[in-house]
Amino acid sequence: MLVSLFILATLTKIHGHYTSGDAPVYHPLPHFWTGVGFCPSGRIDHRGISSALSSSAVQMNLRQIAALPVGAVTHIRIHWLLELIHFLQYDSNGTPIYDFSEFDAFIDFLHDELRLSPVIEWMGNLGGVFLENPQQMPFYWEHFVKTTINHQLARHGSSKIANWRYETWNEPDLRSYNKLNMTAQSFLDYVQAVRRGLSKAGSLETHEGKFQLPMYRALRGPAGLFKSLQNHPLCWKLLDECNKSVKYCPIDILTFHRKGVNGTATEIINGSLALMAKIYEEYPNLKTLPVANDIRSEADPVAGWNTPREFQADVRYGITLISTVMHHLQAKVADGPLRRLESISHDNAFLSYHPYEFTQRTLLAHFQMNETHPPHSQFFQKPVYIALGMLAKLGNRAANIERVNMDASHSVQVLRSVSGGSGGPGQYMATIFLSPVEAGPQLTAFHHKYTLNMSIANESAFITELIVPYITDPYYVWKQAGSPAYPNATLREAMRRVQTPKLHQTGPIWAYNSEVVINSANIPLPWAMLLRVCSASWPKLRRPQQLAIAEVTHGEVFISWMEHPKSTQCLLSYEVWFKERDSQGLSVDWVLISNDWHLPYPSFHYAPGDRGSVNGFYKVRGVDVFNATSPFSQIVEYMEL
Ligand SMILES: *[C@@H]1O[C@H](CO)[C@@H](O)[C@H](O)[C@H]1NC(C)=O
Ligand SMILES: *[C@@H]1O[C@H](CO)[C@@H](O)[C@H](O)[C@H]1NC(C)=O
Ligand SMILES: *[C@@H]1O[C@H](CO)[C@@H](O)[C@H](O)[C@H]1NC(C)=O
Ligand SMILES: *[C@@H]1O[C@H](CO)[C@@H](O)[C@H](O)[C@H]1NC(C)=O
Ligand SMILES: *[C@@H]1O[C@H](CO)[C@@H](O)[C@H](O)[C@H]1NC(C)=O
Ligand SMILES: *[C@@H]1O[C@H](CO)[C@@H](O)[C@H](O)[C@H]1NC(C)=O
Ligand SMILES: *[C@@H]1O[C@H](CO)[C@@H](O)[C@H](O)[C@H]1NC(C)=O
Ligand SMILES: *[C@@H]1O[C@H](CO)[C@@H](O)[C@H](O)[C@H]1NC(C)=O
Ligand SMILES: *[C@@H]1O[C@H](CO)[C@@H](O)[C@H](O)[C@H]1NC(C)=O
Known about the structure:
Layout: H1 2-11, E1 16-19, E2 26-28, E3 35-38, H2 46-53, H3 56-66, E4 75-78, E5 86-90, E6 96-99, H4 101-113, E7 117-121, H5 129-132, H6 137-156, E8 165-167, H7 184-200, E9 205-207, E10 210-212, E11 219-224, H8 233-244, E12 253-256, H9 265-282, E13 291-295, H10 315-333, E14 341-346, E15 364-369, E16 376-381, H11 383-392, E17 397-399, E18 402-405, E19 411-419, E20 428-434, E21 448-453, E22 460-467, H12 474-480, H13 489-497, E23 502-509, E24 515-519, E25 528-535, E26 545-553, E27 556-562, E28 571-580, E29 591-592, E30 603-606, E31 616-624, E32 636-638
Parallel strand pairs: 1-21, 3-4, 3-14, 4-7, 7-8, 8-11, 11-12, 12-13, 13-14
Antiparallel strand pairs: 2-17, 5-6, 9-10, 15-16, 17-19, 18-19, 19-20, 20-25, 21-24, 22-23, 22-25, 26-27, 27-30, 28-29, 28-31, 31-32
């Protein structure tokens, strides 16, 4: 299959030649797409949510998401997270007393271990507190918000939780979410109460004799679908109130949920533009508020993530996600209804289940291995996971997106970005080339040559990596093997071999004004390519941090580590080293266990099988595009029980 595709492709003529313009205008590129979210499965109460979030499958899923390149995912939105807080009793004044221990334990895992910031959605019923006291609901909400924030401030300090985000009740107009049966009026009262609670938390403290103003915490909301006024009165009513007086509006960032009917990026952006245009037309006063979109790509608003769709299994979903980000970037830069776009987030951090391991809307494919004792979970990173990692490598300034026509209705998008001083040394350049998602292998292949002027320094190096059908597609490998419910060790390794980006080309650039020529003729459609160029004086790779070894099952571990944010742009790959402890407890020599793997993301699944044990010592280091290595991480020992 693959071979014939290549032959076919090489016989095809080059259809077009793109040459980059010399000096594009760059504008700031905040990485606004780094949020993900999910809803835990099971009962929505304290016991249900705490058992879901403490399951080893959910925790491994989160561990894998956190093992994307630094900055790829910064925030995670987990519905009903606050149900982890347990209502104990009322004190003598009738004020609720809460037990935070399970919430704290989960936050420690998420925040300290995985370095992900939560998006706290103020939703839940906490053992019935809010429903039992309908008249005092505002009072209870204000108290709950204030108590929760103060508790976190006391545990972590104000600066450590400065990146946390706060949002009102998710999609309150939907019955399935509005568990308190809030009316338009009680919803307004609730939002105001949450606002007061946030403002009063961490209230005036004296610090070295001086008064300190509490940090202002922005509130996002109303996380609405904004369909008709009749069907979604709560969210529209809030906008109505805010339009009357933005100064007294309880929300600071207007959040909405828009999706595509068929999951295309164009539909999502069209829907968002149309909605914001409508909101601004009716409520012109809201033009000053930043806006954020939580994106789902499905038809059914609630249960849609689990509907299996072929395109969500393979590279097409990865390409769609990048395309969605590019469209939002374009809309943000254009002086239109999305100019105040603050962030978008992807509703794809769910845990998939049998028999839809790959086809549900998730970043990872999840296999429940029921035949082992005890059962365990195996995870595979889908191409959309690679896509999020690629986006993290973009610089902090971007040029306008360029389009290279393939035919009348298809074009390759080119997004150029840079970081560092302009024209001088210490520069970094990252460009994403994106073929249209519709251009699947079944369509006529169009081929281009891309020439990029890499004028950043005379001593530099470049690297190109790909997301491409078959070659970076564990789903394809699994289907070829007959889609077994329990893939064996051989197949699992084969699937993991194709779960990282494909290294296309890398090498030094010796002269200023060098050009790189990329010929896409050999690449099956649809594809995405990331080109990075680093000058020799760009900051060198730092030592990997927080090396962690987590058990997958007997004889298998998931190894992950944290990257330093300012030094991994020029990373080529990681090396994972291991020193085994034999049955006598004696260790042998260090072995490079990741030999032959292209590992540009900070994790490695080690499953030696009959070749050895996982007991022993681990260390990792990075290798950059100049072939220079970083210092080794700390050595961590792992022992199976
Ligand atoms: C590349 O860009 C630089 C600076 O923008 C320009 O001076 C140079 O002429 C360009 N080189 C080529 C080969 O186009
Ligand atoms: C909310 O309303 C629904 C439908 O009207 C009803 O079935 C449910 O019992 C109500 N829930 C509460 C907690 O009042
Ligand atoms: C979605 O796909 C269906 C079937 O391919 C098509 O009939 C429909 O027009 C599409 N809808 C949109 C909004 O593109
Ligand atoms: C999105 O809007 C543009 C311009 O209004 C239109 O040309 C295009 O067909 C729309 N696309 C979809 C998928 O609705
Ligand atoms: C919002 O406020 C503007 C100006 O203050 C007013 O013209 C407009 O009618 C208001 N919108 C609604 C729906 O009341
Ligand atoms: C494995 O067990 C889970 C939980 O009981 C079940 O949902 C799933 O369908 C099982 N998988 C297979 C392949 O039977
Ligand atoms: C890079 O270019 C500068 C200016 O042309 C020159 O001074 C320097 O020696 C060059 N470096 C190398 C390694 O060629
Ligand atoms: C593993 O599974 C693959 C595909 O299902 C099969 O071809 C192969 O023989 C199996 N290997 C072993 C060692 O069982
Ligand atoms: C790094 O080493 C590889 C393999 O030895 C070589 O192909 C590549 O050109 C080297 N890169 C640099 C920047 O020297």
